[in-house]
Amino acid sequence: MNNTLKRLHIALVVMLFAWVDVTSAHGLQMTTAQIVQRQDNYLFITINTPLSKLYQNINYADKPASIIHLANSSKQQIKVFREALLKLFKEELTLSVAGKSLRSMRVSTLSAKELQKLLQAEMAAQVLNSAQGQSNHHHSDRKNYLRIEVDGFLPEVNAPRVLNGQFPRALGQILVSYSKPQMQTLSPSEHGSIYTQALLK
Predict the structure, then answer these.
(1) How far apart are CA 129 and CA 24, in angstroms?
(2) Does residue 37 surpass a pLDDT of 60?
(3) What is this structure's pTM?
(4) What residues make up the domain containing 41?
């Protein structure tokens, strides 16, 4: 009886999501990648991507039929999905300078427990938006996007330092930003810590 109710619940949610996909087909969901260079030779990359879209594009063994099935699956299946995500970025995300890869590059993302909560939150947000007649792609909360963090050290090269990268195809269209913060250590004086910074035009 419990299995029958669970299958019925999944079927109803799938129907809702199918309607959401139709109503939001003309919206916009875009992956963003923020590349920050710190201390001259250290890179930190933050990637935020729509979870539903990424799930559609990623392939791995024993993948559940839909993201709804995944959200309602066992902890083990969530762990398998997480491992597939890490494998995707470790194998298909490349960053190099003058042909040399980043040193000690690491990839990290949510824990399996956090990932399951994100899946459930994304499902709830899409169903709510569909009930309100809103386009999910315009109104979904970016806090429900999947966050992947990548960091590593720039290699030493005897050539102009130009960063070259290739992102996984599964991410789709990506908006990339690059910055190199100018950092200062402020020491307190009698009147407090004084900060001065020339602003860029």
Answers:
(1) 10
(2) yes
(3) 0.77
(4) 2-179
